[in-house]
Amino acid sequence: MKERYIEGATRMAKLILERRDELKSKDGAALVFPHSSVDGDCVGSACAVASVLRFLGVSAWVSMPEELPDNMSFLGVEDLLFYPTEEFTCGDLLINGKHYDLAFSVDCSEGHRMGDNNCKLFELYDDALDIDHHEVLHLSSDLKWIDPGSSSACEMVWYVLVKISELIGKPVSEVVDVRTAKCLMAGIVTDTGRFTYTNTKPETLEAAGALMDLGGNITEVCYNLFDMKTPEEFSITSAACYEARFCLDGKLALAVVPEQMFRKYNAGKDALAGVAEKLRDVGGVEFSCVLREIDGSIRANLRSKSEFDCSEFAEKYGGGGHKRAAGFRVTGRDINDLAGEIISEASKYL
Ligand SMILES: [Mn+2]
Fold it and tell me: 68: Cβ–Cβ under 8 A, 6 or more apart, which residues?
């Protein structure tokens, strides 16, 4: 294990084992929180943590802010997922007869990134555990492991699981089953753009290599997550690319997808996966933005090639993410007005 991972991974592994003992003694349950607008990394890391907590004898669930996207159904994680309702958040917090006693966030550290119901549940406990690779301010504590130098939350979770297997004296293949290996692979390939982004490091490939050995089939994971499209998804994706505008001397690529386009192609809200990346990859483009109008709100996906800071840009609209990939959601705006505003805001940087 690389030097820089040892302290954080060991500390989290010990904390997880301590909390396991506490939870078992009071017969409690753990909830693991991903961020909203779920992706392969938050779902993969949350499912891996919940699955390993169960292996360690604790009732654990991934508290989902929304339905699992269809392209992740191949992971076969339904039995790990819990969908909290508003009534649940105000009730006695019993999950299959066990009281919710441990909050654990992955791939995000702040309640407001988790959706309304999950935010309420997460903020009930001020001793939540947290594994995250986003830049965060003022949130460091002994209970958190935050490493913006890591490619993904899944890479960090992998090294924690290696430490857990060492501490409990079991082979890592017992702690990390085939499904968990696929979940972790899903997060690593998502956040590294299949090992092409600059966050891909030797330790990322080392983790992925070990996960392949444990059944994390990279071909299956990549096909299902990125390449497989329904005919409807293929059509709307092609139309969004075809109609994309190149502005600001070709440095900004912008795709605007209003609600009627989803109706025209009979496509679901997750149908535009990969479009922001395709637009960013066009020669001369520095910043790409995909705006999609869904159920009266507008979701934006931002990508950049090198200097443009998507995370900073997304924060102007209440969103967040990383320098090269970020997003936000706004309500009550006209999609074309917002597109115009984004062009003029981006012109200040490009
Ligand atoms: Mn991530």
Answer: 38, 43, 77, 78, 81
State the first-to-last Cα distance of the chain, in angstroms, to the nearest integer: 40
Residue-range definition of the domain harbouring residue 98? 3-225
Distance from residue 312's CA to the centre of ligand 1 (Å)? 16
Q: Let me know whether 214 and 279 are in one domain.
A: no
Confidence of residue 269 (pLDDT cuts 50, 70, 90): confident
CA of 27 relative to ligand 1 center, distance in Å: 31
**189 CA distance to ligand 1 middle (Å):** 10
Compute, in angstroms, the gap from residue 92 CA to the centroid of ligand 1: 32
Distance 133 CA to ligand 1 centre (A): 6
Taking the C-alpha atoms of residue 35 and residue 33, their distance in angstroms, rounded to an integer, is 7
pLDDT at residue 138 tops 80: no
Q: Do 54 and 90 share a domain, yes or no?
A: yes
Distance of CA 264 to the CA centre of its chain: 29
Question: Degrees (nearest 5) of the Cα angle 60, 135, 278?
Answer: 90
Cα 32 to middle of ligand 1, angstroms? 15
Prediction pTM value: 0.88
CA of 151 to the centre of ligand 1 (A): 7
